[in-house]
Design goal:
The protein is α+β, with helices and mostly antiparallel strands and 155 residues long. Helix content is 26%, strand content 34%.
Length: 155
């Protein structure tokens, strides 16, 4: 059940990010992720190549499980962290613009359809943090999104 929630998030990013990215001006361009650009675990900035975007999904240490009704159905809150990293050898001004565009694109994408195409009950971005450098590399920018995924499971 937890794997299904993470797969729903991963699939939603791959299937929808390009649609939301298309709403932004063309210079500098937001690159679009493929399925191979999403990994589980903590980010590895050495995996980022020029003009490339990569997402990492990391699990948090706790899961909230509540019994919802008389039938014993469960509601699960599963916190995850999504890291979005990209490298674009643009000017510093353009990189900061891209950083803000990626943050806006991702938060709009999740906020527009928190059920991730009906695959889960709800999702919510709790907070996000922008990184103007990643591991000392000023060409790599990053955003850390704290997200709660929620779903119900019938027992």
């Amino acid at each position: 059940m937890l794997e299904e929630m993470v797969n729903a998030l991963s699939d939603y990013i791959v299937n929808n990010y390009s649609t939301f990215a298309a709403d932004y001006p063309t210079t500098p361009t937001i690159s679009v992720p493929a399925a191979s650009d999403i990994s589980l675990g903590f980010p590895d900035s050495t995996m980022i190549s020029k003009n490339h975007i990569r997402f990492y999904i990391e699990f948090e240490e706790f899961i909230n499980i509540e019994t919802e009704n008389i039938n014993g159905d469960l509601e699960i809150e599963f916190p995850v962290t999504v890291y979005l990293l990209f490298d674009n050898r643009e000017s510093e001004e353009n990189l900061n613009t891209l950083l803000l565009r990626h943050a806006d694109c991702f938060t709009t994408m999740i906020g527009t359809d928190p059920t991730l195409d009906g695959e889960i009950l709800d999702s919510e971005i709790i907070r996000f943090q922008l990184y103007k450098t990643v591991e000392g590399n000023s060409n790599v920018k990053g955003i850390e999104f704290k997200i709660t995924l929620k779903d119900e499971f019938i027992l």
